[in-house]
């Protein structure tokens, strides 16, 4: 029986039952009743990339298996899986606890996702290394050194984009590469400031959207609820800035232009304004070119990921059209493939002749 990730299971076409095994964490198991007082379980399963909700009815043998499973336990579930208009369902389920070795493999994630996040991390480090401003270079390096483990467990969002462990690394990596390209087109932009803005714009999410070390369910925190990631991110950058200004190398920064206080202020403005509008949670709108560029890069990277996710998780309505996935505006249509040049036609050659002078054909 094939072992599938939740991403692969969700991507299966509708009404095409398949026998498969999944390795998941049981993140929620709620006992509910229908309007007709028929008991069922609302079961949420998760791995490093996706979550899946199942309805398990009381008359199914595996109803008791889920009831008896410990909260937050790690399970192997074998069965016949199907997707229909009501969602996913599993039949003939066989449930057992994962071994410690299987649990460790589950937290490593799929090889494709791990490789992608490793590449994104390498590009983040490389672009920080290319910064000319020693203050922003020191600030970014300190942040990545102190919080690398937390970055690997943090999602870029709770639902809409890069909503998985380490998703913030993917989001930051994509944004910093985009910023590098944009700044090559608009050389008047402060490249170091835009790169630093990409790194720090969501840094407060390390306490708002961070998964615990051994858990695939993202908790709600008082910091996230009472402050949100923008005010907390500003506070974090101020603390890190004070730390680098107390370092021995800061004595050589006194004569730098622009002054250190102004560099810090502009970076804080980018964090404060990156949502673009007051209605979307920013206390101020972008008021510098770098802040405006950061806002659009953030939005662009999020939107591209939303389309990618829609193509792999939404219901396919036709060969090229997928069911709308919020917050995108309408049904998603597959993109036009890139043009690929056809191989050249073979050169024309004169037909061979028979010995008597006649052609072969």
**Derived structural class:** alpha+beta
**Global morphology:** globular
Mean pLDDT: 92
As a percent range, the share of strand residues is 15-25%
Which runs of at least 5 residues are low in confidence (pLDDT < 50)?
none
Major β-sheet annotation:
6 strands, mixed
The helix-strand sequence is EHEEEHEEHHHHHHHHHHEEE
Q: Count the DSSP helices.
A: 12
How many β strands by DSSP?
9
Key features of this structure:
three-stranded antiparallel beta sheet, 361 residues, alpha+beta, 42% helix, 12 helices
What does this 3D model show about the protein?
This protein has helices at residues 6-10, 62-68, 100-108, 111-129, 134-151, 167-185, 191-200, 205-208, 222-226, 229-245, 260-273, 289-313, and strands at residues 2-4, 18-33, 39-46, 51-57, 74-84, 87-97, 316-318, 321-322, 332-333. The chain has 361 residues and is of the alpha+beta class. The strands form two sheets. Strands 1, 2, 3, 4, 5 and 6 form a six-stranded mixed β-sheet that branches. α6 packs across α12 (289-313), α7 (191-200) packs across α12 (289-313) and α11 (260-273) runs parallel beside α12 (289-313). The protein is globular, with a radius of gyration of 26 Å.
Short précis:
The chain has helices at residues 6-10, 62-68, 100-108, 111-129, 134-151, 167-185, 191-200, 205-208, 222-226, 229-245, 260-273, 289-313; strands spanning 2-4, 18-33, 39-46, 51-57, 74-84, 87-97, 316-318, 321-322, 332-333. It is of the alpha+beta class and 361 residues long.
């Amino acid at each position: 029986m094939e072992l599938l990730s939740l991403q692969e299971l969700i991507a299966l076409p509708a009404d095409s039952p398949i026998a498969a095994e999944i390795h998941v964490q049981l993140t929620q198991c709620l006992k509910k009743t229908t309007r007709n007082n028929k008991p069922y379980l609302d079961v949420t399963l998760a791995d490093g990339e996706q979550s899946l909700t199942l309805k398990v009815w009381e008359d199914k043998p595996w109803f008791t298996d889920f009831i008896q499973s410990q909260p937050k336990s790690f399970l192997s579930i074998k069965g016949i899986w199907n997707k229909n208009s009501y969602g996913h369902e599993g039949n003939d389920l066989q449930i057992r606890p994962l071994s410690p070795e299987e649990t460790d493999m589950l937290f490593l994630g799929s090889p494709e996702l791990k490789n992608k996040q490793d590449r994104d991390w390498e590009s983040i480090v490389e672009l920080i290394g290319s910064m000319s401003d020693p203050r922003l270079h020191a600030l970014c390096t300190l942040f990545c050194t102190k919080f690398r483990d937390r970055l690997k467990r943090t999602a870029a969002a709770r639902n809409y984009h890069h909503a998985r462990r380490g998703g913030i690394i993917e989001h930051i990596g994509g944004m910093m590469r985009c910023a590098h390209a944009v700044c090559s087109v608009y050389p008047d932009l402060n490249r170091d400031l835009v790169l630093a803005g990409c790194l720090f714009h969501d840094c407060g999410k390390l306490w708002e959207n961070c998964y615990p070390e051994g858990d695939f369910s993202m908790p709600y925190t008082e910091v996230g609820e009472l402050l949100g990631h923008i005010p907390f991110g500003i506070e974090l950058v101020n603390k890190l800035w004070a730390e680098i200004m107390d370092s021995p190398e800061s004595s050589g920064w006194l004569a730098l232009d622009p002054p250190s206080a102004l560099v810090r202020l502009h970076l804080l403005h980018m964090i404060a304004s990156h949502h673009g509008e007051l209605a979307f949670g920013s206390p101020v709108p972008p008021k510098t070119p770098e802040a405006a560029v950061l806002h659009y890069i953030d939005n662009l990277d999020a939107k591209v990921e939303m389309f990618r996710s829609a193509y792999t998780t939404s219901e396919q309505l036709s060969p090229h059209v997928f069911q709308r996935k919020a917050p995108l505006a309408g049904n998603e249509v597959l993109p036009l493939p890139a043009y690929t040049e056809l191989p050249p036609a073979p050169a024309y050659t004169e037909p061979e002749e028979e010995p008597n002078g006649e052609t072969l054909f």
